[in-house]
Write a structure and sequence with these properties.
mainly alpha, 9 helices, 73% helix, Ferritin
Length: 234
């Protein structure tokens, strides 16, 4: 019996030692795998939005999302490098709907799912670099989700996504990039200004948004301010 107890105690010591040593290796592998998973996810999102650029007319909006996802992938790659890992480039297949509204809703779900996943990973992060990376990615996905919600509203109304993406790429030179960032803006302004039913126009969501831009000074093209807009719709 004493011998049996000795075996049990010895086995317990070995298991205890393993429980102390092995998780460190597993943890390192888990960190790498977790970050690689997010890198793959950012590449997936980039390719998803690239397909929307190719398929649909609201390409300037989707192009900004492409750039944002590329920035996020680079963020993860840098975090991995700081921890001594290298992001692996993989073949990633992406399929998006040929219906733009469906594609927008699928993208919104993708971003919302990402936010939930990052919340979990932040809680379980093993180090500050990993945690900070997930926090930044979470905030990026939140911005994308909010932007996509507004894009869906716009698209359902007139098929045109007429708001600027409020992500990390919005800080551009307003004059040099006006045509690119406000694609279709002048055409929409003229359509609103020439609307025969000015009362409906003033109550419309587009007018309120345009009017809000006037409150901040100028719209993207710098051609109309609030006073001009109000005079034209009287």
């Amino acid at each position: 019996m004493k011998s049996f107890k000795k075996i049990i105690i010895t086995g317990a010591v070995v298991l205890t030692a393993l429980s102390v040593m092995v998780p460190k290796t597993f943890a390192a592998n888990d960190i790498k795998a977790s970050l690689q998973e997010e890198y793959d996810g950012e590449i997936y999102a980039k390719k998803m939005y690239e397909q929307l650029v190719e398929k649909f007319d609201n390409d300037s909006y989707y192009s900004r999302l492409v750039k944002a996802e590329s920035n996020h992938a680079n963020l993860v790659a840098r975090a991995m490098a700081k921890l001594g890992y290298e992001a692996e480039e993989k073949e990633i297949d992406v399929v998006t709907s040929d219906d733009e509204l469906t594609a927008l809703k699928e993208a919104l779900k993708f971003e919302n799912d990402d936010v939930a996943a990052y919340e979990s990973k932040i809680k379980n992060a093993e180090n500050d670099i990993e945690k900070a990376t997930y926090e930044r990615l979470r905030e990026g996905s939140k911005r994308h989700a909010a932007s996509l919600e507004r894009a869906i509203e716009d698209f359902e109304e007139d098929g045109i996504i007429n708001h600027r993406f409020s992500g990390e790429n919005r800080r551009m030179n307003r004059n040099e990039n006006c045509n690119e960032n406000c694609s279709g803006g002048v055409e929409r302004q003229n359509r609103w200004l020439n609307n025969e039913n000015s009362e409906d126009l003033q109550n419309s969501r587009q007018f309120r948004r345009f009017n809000d831009r006037g409150n901040r000074g100028l719209n993207c093209t710098g051609e109309f301010n609030r006073e001009t807009m109000q005079n034209r719709v009287k």
